[in-house]
Design goal:
153 residues; disordered N terminus; 7 helices
């Protein structure tokens, strides 16, 4: 039997609770959710900032510039910051949702796989590889994630 809302002291039956829509979500809110490992808030904010639509082409890539976090040390994108913070659950949510491009690069040509390998966060590296990250994607100086992995052991 389904549980029903009970009447309040005034006799009114309260409406079912809904998650409130976030207003004025900004990069600092996403950054804080990542830092605090708050996946639920992160999901809600990302869905509000970048809702998926059935008409989206499976080959279309989201704009990585729309997800920059200027308050981070390296002015990371959401994907890069998730990788730096070793937030595997966030990554597992982002990649299948096609909310980020796994091979996006920053202004120096550094990709998310390079960031994860540099830290080193091996589970994040593995998740990026499974999502199709390019081990031979060079940054501006020619170094690749594969070279970094071989060099660092």
């Amino acid at each position: 039997m389904a549980k029903r809302n009970s009447p309040t002291s005034t006799g009114e039956v309260p409406a079912p609770q809904k998650r409130q829509k976030l207003l004025n979500v900004g990069p600092q809110d996403l950054q804080l959710a990542i830092e605090q490992n708050d996946l639920d808030s992160f999901r809600q904010m990302m869905q509000e900032l970048h809702p998926t639509s059935p008409s989206s082409s499976p080959n279309s890539q989201p704009d990585p510039g729309a997800f920059l976090l200027p308050g981070t040390e390296h002015q990371d994108s959401v994907l890069f910051y998730v990788c730096r913070q070793n937030r595997l659950e966030f990554l597992h949510w982002l990649l299948p949702q096609q909310r980020v491009c796994v091979n996006q690069t920053d202004r120096d040509g550094v990709g998310a796989l390079f960031v994860a390998a540099w830290e080193p966060h091996l589970a994040v590296v593995q998740a990026l590889l499974e999502a199709g990250a390019d081990v031979n994607q060079p940054r501006s100086d020619g170094f690749t994630p594969l070279f970094l992995a071989a060099w660092e052991g």
